[in-house]
Specification:
Blueprint: E1 2-3, E2 7-14, E3 24-31, H1 45-49, E4 64-71, E5 77-89, H2 91-95, H3 101-109, E6 116-126, H4 131-147, H5 153-162, E7 164-165, E8 172-175, E9 183-186, H6 199-207, H7 209-220, E10 224-229, H8 232-245, E11 254-256, E12 273-278, E13 291-295, E14 300-302, H9 316-328, H10 331-334, H11 349-367, E15 375-379, E16 385-388, H12 390-397, H13 403-410, H14 412-421, E17 425-426, H15 430-444, H16 449-467, H17 499-515, E18 526-527, H18 534-537, H19 542-563, H20 567-580, H21 584-596, E19 603-605, H22 607-622, H23 632-640, E20 643-648, E21 651-654, H24 668-698, H25 710-720, H26 726-755, H27 808-826, H28 831-861, E22 881-890, E23 911-918, E24 921-928, E25 938-943, E26 947-956, E27 963-971, E28 975-981, H29 987-1001, H30 1010-1013, H31 1033-1048, H32 1063-1073, H33 1099-1110, H34 1112-1120, E29 1137-1140, E30 1156-1159, H35 1164-1170, E31 1181-1185, E32 1192-1196, H36 1204-1209, H37 1220-1237, H38 1256-1259, H39 1261-1264, E33 1289-1290, H40 1307-1314, H41 1330-1335, E34 1340-1345, E35 1360-1365, H42 1370-1384, H43 1393-1404, H44 1406-1425, E36 1429-1433, ...
Parallel strand pairs: 10-12, 10-13, 11-12, 19-20, 32-36, 33-37, 34-35, 34-36
Antiparallel strand pairs: 1-7, 2-3, 2-6, 4-5, 5-6, 8-9, 13-14, 15-16, 17-18, 20-21, 22-23, 22-28, 23-24, 24-25, 26-27, 27-28, 29-30, 31-32, 38-39, 40-41, 40-46, 41-42, 42-43, 44-45, 45-46
Length: 1883
């Protein structure tokens, strides 16, 4: 029972003594006067009676009533019901504040002021909140006073103060105060549920749903809330409503529903509060920055900017809003219905209030569902101690990220909730039942609004019933004052009450109470139901479920593999496991699985197992937050002290020393939760054991009981507690206390394990105690056990930031002490025990440090395990390792394919392996770290000579967390090695590696390059021996150089004079040598008359000559019929050109070849003078002649100032006497004129065209604008307009790209070239007049550098014209190439690789340069094709000149598009004409500073672009070009070393003896190598090769037509670059073996081909290669000698050609579209359309007009069909094909010796074939009998066999040349002549 009211107080107005206008309240009377013992009188009531201040009013106000709430020091709430009315104030009182007399008189004399009224309050103070009863009671007292009722005020007040009512239990009590009144008081059934009347519903009416929800969340998350209203009662109601909504949580901060004006500064308190203030003071609340203000009158809630209120988590927020609108606005649901139901109406206000509360009750039940499963009970006796495991609750609910719930759980309200409701044995209320039993129902009803509403109504009923247990049977009967009584004028003041009477009544009542028996309130205690566990309620998403099952299986398998020691299998699964660890289920699974492998708290593993387990643990922990909400760290904690490995006898390393790097171990809350959890388990065990002992007897046969939870056991114990004896109670308390104590010791140990680092000597710890960024710790799975040592991997910053000491031990001791203090105090450990603990902890830490030292020492000695075996790369013959493999990790660079990237697939990089340095290459060989591809081998290598840049980098290690030093090596073969050295590689080794690398990259001399050092151990001495019978070629070439040097006129040390052997001697020697030669030089048979050494050549020069003649240029001059060696022969008179030997000693120009083509009329001495005008003495020489127009292409260096330019500038200026300059200028002019005269059409070209368009102004893109376009047309002389369309050439227009093309060709020149007027507007520029072209063309165009030709005026008398163009210099090429490399092989990954790649590609301007070169070349092709000669005279004549000249020849002459022709082109234009390969390739130390300039590569790229546009015009493939690109920088062959022929001779490289080869494998020339390889395999051969007759190619050169060469972007990681053929061939076999071994695996035909890993052309060869390969394999299987692929190919083609012909004749030739008539553009795509009557078929043409066996002819080559082709399908070895055979000597080509050959006369094929010897199967040459003109007896020439008689010689004259033969004797010779003639007659 409790008193209804504790005090009755009468408070009146008292004027302020200080003289201010406002007065103050004063307690006039209070009853009882003594304080109650249990309830002292609250202070400050007078302030609360008039919250706005005590003021006088000029009129009477009606009485007011409100309830204020005061909170006392023990946080008890006192409800002060204030009833206020107004009394008139007498003047004296109102004026008493005027102090002195004069003023009084003055005041009196004034007019009397109006009557004033002062407030007076009747106040009831109670601890019960019965507002209505208080209102009625105070109203009654007022009525008695106002209406003067008969009842005595003292009696009424006395009765009021002595009235007692039951607190709860739903009793109904009728009271009367003795004034004829009657009131019924109903107490709530359950006092734990708040009483709200209608306040909640009113609050929602005033503020609306969103605002109230916002306030609700703000209150729960501890924000400050301020209500404003002009009504005090409303403030009280709103505050009460907010508290009612928060049930079951209780608000524990400042709660003042009505705050008096004097206390407004309370609003700036730092703690949270709920306060109500009269809106009079609204202005004063403006400056509050952190207060949420709710204006009840205006219905607004204002949230300051600086406050963020966390709202309810979705979907709860949405559901709550919906439910509230169902309750508050039922019409909303049916507002849109066409026929709304008539009966919808909201509940009564009281009911609505309960419904709203029901919504919030449901909300809390959903928020806190399953909370009881996260309670830890640490002590049961003497009082339960309960803790809540917040992290576990959030984790299981999946709301870790949720701000709102986290804040609520951390709040004071929730702490109170746990204390109050955590107890396992207590009374239960509505909320407990809801959480325990209704949660599932709520989840089930989630979607249906009807069901939700029904549930809400049910709950509302219960709440309503709790407040109003009985229907109000009896009506209240309380007298009320008459209407308007407060306005009566003569109201007497409230009487003074008699204290005695009141006190007497009170005393009477107290005495009576004491005698009465105490009313015992029976509490119905019971065990609080737990409700379903969270897991049962929280359903996971289905898809995740299915997905995770597979993942868990992977985790289980991996762990079982580890423990079964199947390490390879485990390694494969590990990445999948580590990826799966992102999921919670997998982490739990891991801990459970590992648990199974622990026996008796210990699991000894071997090193590798230990390593795997630690890696998995680390990965598991790295995703745990510091809270460990999923209990992963908790589950791992016992495991890290269980798994261990033996380091040495007596020393064991446990897993905890390797998993310390995680943030969770430094979190005290984690340790507390873990501790409490363990304590709970132990205490549960304690009681289970005792109960089991009791039950064992009874339980004989029953099944196993359900496991009891700790809370259930605790509830049981609390129930029994009062019944136990005192001793029993003491015993239990002591047992529990010692359990907690032992756990505390255990945890002190555990914490020291995880906090002390392995290397404690370092004086710094694993991580800072603050740990701002969690990520820094968890960036990758950390395992240091691999290296065996951890200490080195800690970052320096990671020491504990502890000011007093950096000493590890002290820190750990302090950390553990703090922990122990907290948990022991909370769980009631005795002080003695606590002191004991504090003594123990330092010892524990110290002991542990000592064991760690030993472990650390031993672990350092541990051999590093689990590193993959180093794989040795296969080396070339003669390649040697310079440095053994250094263990490195190959890191991914910016190319994303290998790292998984856009193509997907497991990442091949990073890969672990080793880097090897050989004499030739840098090779990385290793295996990917990703075990899914762990079996693959990754090889990346490049030749040392191609290294362009090396820089140091530091990389974050893959597995370890420390920074490794590394190198980034970039190569101009478009390869990049980013390597990070392993920690086992000392930095000295890395340094040695760099030094070696540098030494090999830049040798002192070219002798140091691999091509020279290969295969030779000691360097051979270079001096010739004293006596030599047959001097070797090398000495000859030396001698030649000596002569050259002497000629050039430098002083050299004189050596013993050396006389060359006579010519015969040399031939003899040659004869012996060539016995073992297995290839015959292609153009060996040469017309004897073309080049005979004239008698004028001195014998000492003869041998020089013979060598010069063998050079490529000479072979080519012959092919084109350009000139002879001298002018002595009659035939040469009409030849316009001759071969000059003027440079045979390289005296005139070091960088030119020995033999040069000059006009016939120019003498050698003139040449010497002319050469001085040109840079590097490179005077103009002819390098090619057009077979049809006979126009010639010349090349030279740029001019010196006084050359032609000077000549042009001062042409007619009079000179004083013939000066030196003048004469050379004239000679130069004569020279050019001689060139012009050589051209056949020169005679009829009367007029001439000046290419005046090529002026510098027009040449710059600025003048023309970026989109300038030139149309240059190919029009043959005299062709009519319709002749344009004949398929003479393939034409790509010359267009300027507009980006880099400063030299844009002007429209006018294009039109001039095409022979049309620039103004004529004919479309596509068909020439208007054919003859116009002829008269307007210059005979010779000189293409020169614009900068040199400034100010050149066109001269009408000359027949040449200067075309100035702007070209880029080598510097630009270098810069562009660097950017290109960075674009194609970026060093770092980027966000958007494709975009970055394209941008970088554009910035490099590489394609613009290609475009420019192609454009100039196409222009020149046009000029030559229209019959003008062209002289290219740019820079020094060896870079761009070479590019352009080579391209022009390639485009104009089909011969150069064959393999043989291309070789010839490169040898002639690049090697003989002195492109500076050493200089540009920076091959030696001297060139290091100048850097790498890829001039030749650029040329090859141009060829590649042309090849792409005309795939059927080239005999070689793209691979051939890539092969050259790679090897011209690789220094594997000597071909591309040195800068000129002169230097090559000087070194003795040029003419090497065949016999000198050490072994067949070491090739010195790339051409030999290619030739040999081509015989073996068709890798260089283009199957689509089907050239057209005399085809001139005109490729498009726009940038849009150019493609980036895949050479720059492709790589094959499976084998490294595929250009060292021997290395690559070894790979596939190994793979097959590996496949065979693993027979258990299912065999599949499918292959996965990775773009960056496999060599696609070999793994998946094209159809023809595959067929050839299959044929080869079949031949081998049948035991036949396999046929050469080329022969096979030729046969197939020949047979196909005959098939085609037969088909054509069958179907009528008209329907067959043959190649010759095919339109050029269609051909360029490489596909023939073959139409036939049957149906149109696409036939990839294999038709090639040249047979591989036909002899190269001069001029247009190989166009004519050789009859041999028709028969080539017959076996060559068949007897009937060999009509006659025998041995003959044959005279080789010019200057070559006689050689014996085996000749076969074949009647069937109508040809004479010859072989090296009888057994040779490969034909060395064929003489077609169709071409034989005559057969005549011959004469022996020089070098013929001595023993043979003269008559045995005979000559065979063909249309091309004369063959000289010689038989063994006359008889045989005659027989041969007869046989051949009979063959000729038969034909």
């Amino acid at each position: 029972m409790a008193r209804l009211a504790d005090y009755f107080v009468l408070v009146g107005y008292e004027p302020d003594k200080r003289g201010s206008g406002d007065g103050q309240g004063q307690i006039l009377q209070r009853f009882p006067e003594k304080d109650w013992e249990d309830n002292p009188f609250p202070q400050g009531i007078e302030l609360f009676c008039q919250p706005s201040g005590w003021q006088l009013f000029t009129e009477r106000n009606p009485p007011t009533f409100f309830v204020a709430v005061l909170t006392d020091i023990s946080s008890e709430r006192h409800y002060c019901a204030c009833f206020t009315f107004w009394e008139a104030v007498d003047n004296a009182q109102s004026q008493s504040h005027s102090r002195n007399g004069e003023e009084e008189e003055a005041a009196a004399s004034l007019v009397q002021p109006a009557q004033l009224f002062a407030p007076k309050s009747l106040v009831l103070v109670s601890r019960l909140d019965h507002a209505e009863v208080f209102r009625n009671s105070l109203g009654l007292i007022y009525t008695i006073y106002v209406d003067g009722l008969s009842a005595s005020l003292e009696n009424v007040i006395g009765n009021l103060l002595t009235c007692t009512i039951p607190i709860t239990g739903g009793a109904q009590r009728t009271i009367s105060l003795g004034a004829g009144d009657r009131q019924v008081i109903q107490t709530p059934i359950n006092d734990s549920l708040p009483v709200s009347n209608c306040s909640v519903a009113l609050l929602f009416r005033q503020l609306g749903i969103t605002n109230v929800l916002c306030l609700f969340c703000a209150a729960l998350t501890e924000h400050k809330i301020l209500f404003l209203s002009s009504s005090y009662q409303r403030l009280t109601d709103a505050c009460r409503a907010l508290l009612a909504l928060m049930f079951p949580l209780k608000y524990s901060f400042t709660y003042v529903p009505i705050l008096p004006a004097q206390l407004l500064e309370v609003l700036s308190t730092p703690t949270p509060f709920i306060i109500g203030v009269s809106s009079v003071f609204q202005s004063e609340t403006q400056e509050l920055l952190d207060v949420v203000i709710a204006d009840l009158d205006g219905g607004t809630v204002t949230i300051p900017e600086c406050i963020h209120i966390s709202l309810l988590p979705e979907p709860l927020l949405h559901q709550t809003r919906e439910a509230l609108s169902l309750v508050l606005d039922p019409e909303l649901e049916v507002a849109d219905l066409a026929f709304p139901p008539s009966t919808i109406s909201a509940s009564s206000l009281k009911m609505q209030d309960k419904e709203i509360r029901a919504v919030f009750l449901r909300l809390f039940a959903q928020l806190l569902q399953g909370y009881r499963w996260c309670l830890h009970i640490i002590r049961i006796h003497p009082e339960p101690v309960i803790r809540f495991h917040k992290a576990a609750f959030l984790g299981q609910r999946g709301l870790v990220e949720d701000d709102f719930l986290t804040k609520v759980l951390e709040g004071m309200a929730f702490a109170g909730f746990v204390t109050e409701r955590g107890a396992p044995y207590r009374a239960v209320d509505l909320f407990d039942e809801l959480v325990a039993s209704e949660v599932k129902r709520m989840r089930a009803e989630e979607g249906s609004k009807q069901k939700i509403l029904r549930h809400i109504k049910e709950l509302a009923e219960q709440l309503y019933k709790n407040e109003n247990p009985y229907p109000a049977v009896t009506m209240h009967k309380v007298q009320k004052p008459t209407e308007g009584c407060h306005l009566r004028l003569h109201q007497r003041p409230f009487p003074r009450l008699d204290e005695g009477t009141v006190q007497w009544i009170i005393d009477q009542a107290t005495a009576k109470l004491q005698t009465a028996p105490p009313a015992v309130k029976v509490e119905k205690k019971c065990m609080v139901p737990l409700g379903p566990p969270i897991a049962a309620i929280m359903e996971r998403n289905g898809s995740a479920q299915a997905n995770s099952a597979r993942r868990l299986e992977v985790v289980r398998n991996c762990i079982s593999y580890v423990f079964e020691n199947k390490m390879l299998e485990a390694k494969k699964l590990l990445p999948a496991v580590l990826r799966a660890m992102k999921g919670r289920a997998a982490r739990h699974c891991l801990t459970q699985e590992l648990n199974l492998h622990v026996q008796q708290n210990r699991a000894m593993l071997d090193h590798q197992q230990f390593d795997f387990v630690v890696r998995m643990m680390n990965c598991c922990l790295q995703d745990c937050t510091a809270m460990d909400e999923h209990g992963i760290a908790a589950a791992l904690l016992p495991l890290v002290t269980a798994f261990c490995r033996k380091l040495s006898p007596g020393i064991t390393q446990f897993a905890y020393s390797c998993v310390q790097e995680h943030v969770v171990w430094t979190n005290t809350q984690f340790w507390e939760a873990m501790f409490y959890c363990d304590v709970q388990n132990h205490i549960r065990a304690l009681y289970l054991e005792s109960s089991e002992e009791n039950h064992l007897a009874e339980e004989g046969t029953e099944g196993p009981r359900e496991e009891k939870s700790a809370l259930e056991i605790a509830a049981e114990q609390r129930r029994l507690w009062p019944t136990m004896s005192r001793e029993k109670q003491q015993e239990l308390i002591q047992k529990e206390e010692s359990t907690v104590f032992s756990q505390a010791i255990h945890y002190a140990n555990r914490m020291s394990y995880l906090l002390l680092p392995l290397d404690t000597s370092k004086n710094r710890l694993l991580r800072s105690s603050g740990l701002g960024d969690v990520e820094s710790v968890s960036n990758s799975f950390v395992t240091n056990s691999i290296a065996g040592s951890m200490a080195d991997s800690y970052d320096t910053e990671s020491g504990f930031e502890d000011a007093e000491s950096s000493d590890v031990a002290n820190y750990v001791v302090r950390f553990i002490n703090r922990f122990v203090d907290k948990v022991c105090t909370e769980s009631g450990v005795t002080n003695e025990h606590l002191k004991g603990l504090h003594v123990m902890i330092p010892d524990i830490v110290q002991m542990h440090i000592e064991t760690l030292d030993a472990v650390h020492r031993e672990s350092k000695r541990l051999p590093p395990i689990q590193k993959p075996k180093l794989l040795r790369p296969s080396l070339l013959v003669g390649e040697e390792c310079v440095m053994e493999g250094l263990r490195v990790c190959l890191m991914p660079d910016g190319r994303e394919e290998a790292a998984g990237g856009n193509t997907g697939g497991p990442p091949l990089l990073p890969a672990e392996g080793a880097i090897f340095l050989t004499t030739y290459r840098i090779v990385f060989k290793g295996t990917p770290t990703d075990p899914l591809v762990g079996e693959q081998v990754v090889i990346r290598s490049f030749p040392i000579a191609s290294l362009t840049k090396e820089k140091r980098i530091s990389t974050q290690g893959q597995v370890e967390q420390f920074v490794q030093e590394g190198l980034q090596l970039r190569s101009c073969t478009f390869q990049l090695l980013r390597i990070a050295f392993d920690e086992e590689v000392a930095s000295e080794s890395a340094e040695v590696f760099r030094k070696h690398l540098h030494k090999l990259r830049y040798p002192q001399h070219v002798h140091g390059t691999f091509a020279f050092t290969v295969g030779q151990s000691p360097k051979q001495a270079l001096q010739p021996k004293a006596k030599e019978k047959n001097p070797s070629l090398r000495t000859l070439s030396k001698n030649l150089v000596k002569n050259a040097k002497r000629t050039i006129g430098r002083q050299y040390v004189t050596r013993k004079k050396y006389t060359p052997p006579s010519w015969e001697q040399r031939s003899g020697q040659h004869l012996q040598e060539d016995e073992d030669e297995d290839e015959i030089s292609v153009s060996e048979e040469m017309d004897r008359s073309t080049l005979t050494p004239s008698t004028t050549i001195k014998p000492s020069d003869k041998m020089t000559m013979s060598h010069l003649v063998e050079r490529a240029c000479c072979r080519d001059y012959q092919r084109m019929g350009l000139g002879t060696l001298s002018n002595s022969l009659t035939r040469s008179k009409n030849e316009p050109f001759r071969i000059s030997t003027v440079n045979r000693m390289y005296a005139i120009c070091r960088s030119y070849p020995g033999l040069l083509i000059v006009p016939q009329s120019i003498q050698d001495n003139t040449i010497q003078r002319i050469s001085r005008c040109y840079r590097q003495n490179r005077f103009p020489v002819v390098c090619w002649r057009h077979s049809r127009t006979k126009a010639v292409l010349l090349r030279s260096g740029g001019l010196h100032g006084k050359g032609v330019v000077g000549l042009f500038k001062s042409q007619n200026a009079p000179t004083a006497g013939p000066s030196q300059t003048d004469s050379t200028s004239l000679e130069q002019e004569k020279y050019l004129q001689a060139v012009i005269n050589s051209m056949p059409h020169y005679a009829d070209a009367s007029g001439r065209n000046t290419l005046s368009g090529f002026t510098s102004a027009h040449m710059s893109s600025a003048a023309l604008g970026p989109r300038a376009r030139v149309i240059s047309l190919s029009t043959p002389k005299g062709a009519s307009a319709k002749g344009r369309d004949s398929p003479r050439g393939k034409w790509g227009s010359i267009r300027a790209s507009g980006r880099m093309s400063n030299y844009v060709l002007n429209m006018e020149i294009g039109s001039r070239l095409a022979g049309k007027d620039p103004l004529s507007a004919q479309h596509n520029g068909a020439p208007s007049e054919a003859s116009f072209l002829r008269q307007h063309r210059a005979s010779l165009y000189i293409i020169g550098d614009k900068s040199q030709l400034k100010g050149v005026k066109p001269d009408p008398l000359q027949h040449w014209e200067v075309v100035p163009i702007e070209v880029f210099d080598v510097r630009q090429v270098k810069a562009s190439f660097k950017k290109l490399m960075k674009a194609c092989v970026p060093g770092h990954p980027s966000a958007d690789p494709s975009l970055r790649y394209l941008r970088a590609l554009e910035e490099s301007e590489w394609l613009s340069q290609i475009h420019k070169i192609l454009q100039i070349s196409v222009l020149m092709v046009e000029l030559l094709d229209t019959g003008s000669s062209v002289l290219v005279s740019l820079e020094d004549g060896w870079d761009i000149t070479t590019q352009v000249v080579s391209l022009v020849q390639l485009l104009s002459d089909p011969y150069y598009r064959t393999m043989e022709g291309f070789r010839l082109l490169v040898e002639k234009e690049w090697l003989s004409f002195g492109h500076r390969f050493s200089q540009r390739g920076a091959q030696t130390l001297a060139g290091q500073s100048s850097g790498f300039a890829p001039i030749f590569l650029q040329f090859l790229d141009c060829v590649h672009q042309i090849h792409l546009q005309f795939p059927m015009e080239f005999e070689f493939t793209q691979y051939y070009l890539k092969f050259l690109s790679y090897h011209y920088v690789s220094n594997r062959f000597r071909t591309f070393l040195l800068d000129s022929d002169y230097e090559r001779i000087e070194l003795g490289v040029l003419y090497e003896e065949k016999g000198e080869r050490k072994s067949q494998q070491v090739y010195k020339s790339i051409w030999d190598y290619i030739e040999r390889l081509n015989k073996k395999t068709p890798i260089f051969f283009n199957y689509m090769y089907a050239p057209e007759d005399g085809e001139v190619l005109r490729p498009y050169s726009n940038i849009s037509n150019l493609k980036v060469w895949d050479y720059y972007t492709q790589e094959t990681l499976s084998e490294g670059p595929s250009y060292d053929w021997e290395l690559v061939q070894e790979q596939p076999e190994q793979v097959e073996e590996a496949e065979r071994q693993d027979s258990s695996a299912p065999q599949t035909k499918r292959k996965i081909i990775w773009p960056c890993y496999d060599n696609r052309s070999r793994v998946e060869p094209d159809a023809i290669s595959k067929l050839l390969e299959e044929l080869h394999n079949l031949e081998v299987e049948l035991g036949q000698a396999p046929e050469r692929w080329k022969d096979m190919w030729d046969k197939v083609k020949a047979s196909q050609r005959t098939d085609t012909r037969q088909e054509a004749s069958r179907m009528g030739s008209s329907c067959l579209l043959m190649a010759s008539s095919l339109a050029p553009h269609r051909r360029s795509l490489g596909v023939y359309l073959q139409e036939s009557g049957v149906g149109s078929t696409l036939n990839l043409s294999l038709d090639s007009d040249t047979s591989s066996t036909s002899t190269p002819s001069s001029g247009k080559q190989g166009v004519r069909k050789s009859t041999g082709n028709l028969y080539s399908q017959f076996q060559m070895s068949e007897s009937e094909n060999r009509s006659y055979e025998g041995s003959l000597y044959k005279k080789g080509a010019f200057m070559k010796p006689w050689k014996p050959r085996w000749f076969v006369l074949d009647k069937t094929k109508h040809q004479l074939r010859y072989y090296d010897n009888r057994t040779d199967t490969e034909c060395k040459g064929v003489i077609d009998l169709v071409e034989v003109e005559s057969i005549t007896p011959g004469t022996p020439t020089m070098g013929a066999p001595k023993t043979v008689e003269e008559k045995a010689f005979f000559d065979l004259k063909t249309t091309k040349r004369v063959y000289n033969f010689c038989a063994q004797d006359v008889h045989l010779a005659q027989q041969w002549i007869d046989r051949i003639q009979s063959c000729l007659l038969d034909a």
